[in-house]
Amino acid sequence: MKEYWTALASLMGAFAFLQGVLHAVFPAELRAAVARLLGRLTRAFSPYCYFDVTEMDGMSTNEIYDAVQLYLSSTAAPASGARLSLSRPLNASSFTFGLAASDRVADTFAGAAVTWEHVVAPRQGQGFSWRPLPEEKRRFTLRIRRGDRDKLLPAYLDHILAAAADIRRRSQDRLLYTNARGGAMDARGLPWDPVPFKHPSTFDTLAMDPARKAAIMADLRDFADGSAFYERTGRAWKRGYLLYGPPGTGKSSMIAAMANYLGYDVYDLELTEVSSNAELRKLLMKTTSKSIIVIEDIDCSVDLTNRAKLAPAPAPKPRPSIDGAIDQDGGAGAARSITLSGLLNFTDGLWSCCGAERIFVFTTNHIEKLDPALLRSGRMDMHIFMSYCSFPALRILLRNYLGFQSDDELDRLGDAAAVLRGLEEWVDAAEITPADVSEVLIKNRRSGKAEAMRELLDVLKARAEKRRRGGCGGAAAAPGKEAGGDNEEEEEEKRALESPKEGKEQAGIDSCGDGQDEEAEAKKQV
């Protein structure tokens, strides 16, 4: 054993002597050149290509590095056995995973295998800088086969950037924007005021026939995945939805479900706060892609009624204004309110192409009051009638509010099965909205499932009987008055939103009529 240690010490001494001789004979520059030459020979005969994605690009952050980190967080977390780091960014709603130092993860794209390695090395001492760099140098190294280079680059990097943007959008809280200041800008130069959007409505909880929900979801998914289709057909990447029906049928819940399904922000546009077509275009230009622009109760917001039903009135000769809209009263009207032409250009004109992946949603209780030009395809592509509560929608509400786990549990109610059959029989005749059904179930949810369903059945029978009596004509006055209450209130709101010019014209007509009455009265007295 002693001889072994003696031989090892002699060998190490000889190795140290040779190393010293090499350092003395061959300078450091020559040794570095030899090392680079050997590396090039090795890479020349290697079947792989290597690409480094550094964290810092000069003094700024490399966008591709952040995208790769987010992309690998979704790729590595479920299936990889690598060592992962766990983090949660600020204002994020989910956790993200990342590769630890000097660890690897495999991925596939277009049938080709790739390998990512996260390399972390200490940074050499740096001098004084106004913007200090991180203490460690980080980079991702991509290894691919030489034969797959043309197939993967740049398509694979584009895929990573798109996937990272989608992960970033879904992990962060969505926002609800409003134009409370009209078109005025805030300190950041933005006309929109955002608040966190946390509406819990989803397509699973939405009270609607399952077949109709599936069709709407498929249309939304085709739109979100239709970038290549819209580019190939030469159409702007936008789509319009018109939600119409009686109040309380779930139009606002449908908008929230669409936003939660696609992960889009929502812009609630209040037309009464917009004073001109120019401000309307300014608001459109300040919206982001992947967003839903909503105008609720459009028939009550501004005067956009059917032009075919309006009686012609004397007006000054129209002339085009600077923003392209038709000014009907010499320039004063365009500065006072938006026009139908401005709204049409907003939804389907050249300015609607400023951005991509936008959805326009209009809601109304009276579709017959809207101008046909606003309803045609290209502006409102899909018309969705939000009807009264049907029996499939009623089953969804029973699951939501009474805690039924599935339709099978509803069908196995036992004694309450007769109540369920009664609900199916009376729900169509009652013409009740999902909001009214929800209110009945909320009030009786502590009484038990069977008792709440019996109370709902009594309400449906009472409403159906009331409608039947109203249809017979004997007691039609009271139901008709009750049914027309909402319409009268909406008409009063519309009259309150009429332009001052219309008020002046009406006042002139009234004064003229009073003058004629006074003249007739004077002649009668003579």
UniProtKB/TrEMBL annotation:
InterPro entries: AAA+_ATPase, AAA_N_dom, At3g28540-like_C, ATPase_AAA_core, Mitochondrial_chaperone_BCS1, P-loop_NTPase. It comes from the Eukaryota. Belongs to the AAA ATPase family. BCS1 subfamily. Its cofactor is Mg(2+). GO terms for biological process: response to stress. Residues 493-507 have a biased composition (Basic and acidic residues). One of its GO terms (molecular function) is ATP hydrolysis activity. Keywords: Magnesium. Coiled coil: none annotated. Residues 237-390 form the AAA+ ATPase domain. This is AAA+ ATPase domain-containing protein. Residues 470-526 are annotated as: Disordered.
